[in-house]
Amino acid sequence: xxxxxxxxxxxxxxxxxxxxxxxxxxxxxxxxxxxxxxxxxxxxxxxxxxxxxxxxxxxxxxxxxxxxxxxxxxxxxxxxxxxxxxxxxxxxxxxxxxxxxxxxxxxxxxxxxxxxxxxxxxxxxxxxxxxxxxxxxxxxxxxxxxxxxxxxxxxxxxxxxxxxxxxxxxxxxxxxxxxxxxxxxxxxxxxxxxxxxxxxxxxxxxxxxxxxxxxxxxxxxxxxxxxxxxxxxxxxxxxxxxxxxxxxxxxxxxxxxxxxxxxxxxxxxxxxxxxxxxxxxxxxxxxxxxxxxxxxxxxxxxxxxxxxxxxxxxxxxxxxxxxxxxxxxxxxxxxxxxxxxxxxxxxxxxxxxxxxxxxxxxxxxxxxxxxxxxxxxxxxxxxxxxxxxxxxxxxxxxxxxxxxxxxxxxxxxxxxxxxxxxxxxxxxxxxxxxxxxxxxxxxxxxxxxxxxxxxxxxxxxxxxxxxxxxxxxxxxxxxxxxxxxxxxxxxxxxxxxxxxxxxxxxxxxxxxxxxxxxxxxxxxxxxxxxxxxxxxxxxxxxxxxxxxxxxxxxxxxxxxxxxxxxxxxxxxxxxxxxxxxxxxxxxxxxxxxxxxxxxxxxxxxxxxxxxxxxxxxxxxxxxxxxxxxxx
Amino acid sequence: xxxxxxxxxxxxxxxxxxxxxxxxxxxxxxxxxxxxxxxxxxxxxxxxxxxxxxxxxxxxxxxxxxxxxxxxxxxxxxxxxxxxxxxxxxxxxxxxxxxxxxxxxxxxxxxxxxxxxxxxxxxxxxxxxxxxxxxxxxxxxxxxxxxxxxxxxxxxxxxxxxxxxxxxxxxxxxxxxxxxxxxxxxxxxxxxxxxxxxxxxxxxxxxxxxxxxxxxx
Lengths: 631, 217
What we know:
CATH class of the largest domain in chain A: Alpha Beta
Largest sheet of chain B: 6 strands, mixed
Shape of chain A: globular
CATH topology of the domain at 3-152 in chain B: Pyruvate-ferredoxin Oxidoreductase, domain 3
Shape of chain B: globular
Low-confidence stretches of chain B: 1-18
Mean pLDDT of chain B: 88
Number of strands of chain A: 20
Radius of gyration of chain A: 28 Å
CATH architecture of the largest domain in chain A: 3-Layer(aba) Sandwich
CATH class of the domain at 3-152 in chain B: Alpha Beta
Distance between the termini of chain A: 59 Å
Oligomer: heterodimer
Strand content of chain B: 15-25%
CATH superfamily of the domain at 3-152 in chain B: Pyruvate-ferredoxin oxidoreductase, PFOR, domain III
Strand content of chain A: 15-25%
Helix content of chain B: 25-40%
Distance between the termini of chain B: 71 Å
Strand order of the largest sheet of chain A: 3-2-4-5-7-6-12
Structural class of chain A: alpha/beta
Mean pLDDT of chain A: 93
Structural class of chain B: alpha/beta
CATH topology of the largest domain in chain A: Rossmann fold
CATH architecture of the domain at 3-152 in chain B: 3-Layer(aba) Sandwich
Low-confidence stretches of chain A: 341-359
Order of helices and strands of chain B: EEHEEEHEHHEHHHH
Strand order of the largest sheet of chain B: 3-4-2-5-6-7
């Protein structure tokens, strides 16, 4: 039966059909739905681990114990897990291990756009790249088989477009229940204890394994030649295959399901059967570099150092339009004829017979100057009040990864650095020990604190720096869609569990100056921070309130109101950056400033605006409820 | 040297069947409006019609009140999940500013289904930018196509008791423009929405459909 599945759902189906027993990961766009889907299948243990390194160790542990295992993460998660990634490449396992890296070209939801195929080459393990959801399912199954055949972990490299595109997939039954490959946990220190003496013996083995994998790549069924015309041959993989089919319909194609190691004979043979050979791939010239190193001539021949990608951009996602434009610019495709040219750019004034209406501008690039719609903290977001106060206090703020990174957006404008998961606390500590005159505030979410914030806070406590840490505890992993974490009291598969309390944990790390305050209590938060700014030593504020989008919170929504007779348009409530606060058409009679009004559909009744209003023009929840019940 | 995996290509993509014309549908809205759910329904309807279907969207940070775009392609054989600029046959916009933002994807003469509902972005509410006037939006849309269908999805859904059904009102209108059997769509919608909202969504769908078939009442 065919079903429409996203690439992520297809990986989950593939892993299940292949008999996976243990799956672990940390949520991260675009990888999250793989585990969420897999967790609902029977006979599978799936967990959110606190971070990707732990997740990969868990999957390795299961594979050492002879059960097929899966680890899932976004591309930057592999950086966190890299230590484990490298040792398991050395040891191999007792049963199949597949590591999914979901890369994010164009950084739709990421801080960088690294190409994780490089990790496969780095660690000498195979890299498989699906081109649609069916491919994703089939290659996941193939990855488990390959893993066991060659005693190697396998990297399944996805990209946002594959993860989040749905295409029809033939779904099947689970293979006959996969028995543990070993009856007894292996006692094989020569293979599994990587002390130098053993590791030195393993290294030549993995180099030899790579040669065997390269030989196998020649017959790997997912490396496929599609012969059409001989004028142009395209070597491609992943979603770029789809763009090749769309933009070069007459070209012959070598579609690689395995992009490391490469099938050298097949590439040479394919090269000999076409007049011009090109490589079409997203991000790094990963295939292109290897093909050039083989001495195979790619079109066009030119000196390429230091930029080694010849035709297509090295940055950003590709799409058919970019592929076509790049091919035209390189002289590979003819300039579009006048008749074919898509005269459709709605924003292109030159092609418009009508003048633009007043008030609308054209930007330099020919696009309409439309008001941007950047992502913002939601109405009722418990992070808002903290950032309003931090902006007001004008302190340097080292931020972290999560919804709350949006504290950087005007008008809150209250974050000054953000690098990677858990970086906030260490970066703030670095400034403090460097002797920076201003006292630094590190801001980190609950899930990010569990991920990599704990060792960094331990360091602040141990080395006694002047850092103020604010843990924004919204009781969930919000950004990626409300996944469970050690603070939520339930597991990925819905089991009740011990809900970790942050304040005692912080005390145990060695910090006595710690308080937990409801994140909506902006006055108390401000008072506390002001007091701490005048004293020395580490201090931790847990600003706690559940994410306003959680079902239990939604039940409490009450829309607040602005009293137009009291509001004088002072604009202070606009400065909290809440989407529910609008400028009304009514003007204040004295200053002629627009009065505030509240969108009843968006307002959740968090009261932050009411608390910051100097004229008490905004009702509190009790007042609204009282009005409603007043006959 | 001949490899057994070399397959001679007999492409179907270059000869689309007349009974199943390829269709590119771009759906756009603001985070929280149900744009993704609507595109799931459109994709499933394509499958039910026997098309090859691809549906592409981006999750994550963009969904926090930002613009949301989802793309659905129906065809005999679909390659790229992304619709190239100027090649969308239908633009379904659950918010009118977002219709304008996505307009470069529409082919000239394509069809637009747009909700007159406005959700001012924070750049507007903070006073830094100006929300385009209705006339401006109308003029801009008309530069690309005369086929603009204003469907007050939010207003109708509120009338029915729940603004969240606005997306299904626009899908009702879409199904009517395609001359589709409503039961085909309702079958998919029933599978995709919770039981307790079934009747609401059926009514929303019917109201949107009626606006195209019989005009405003």
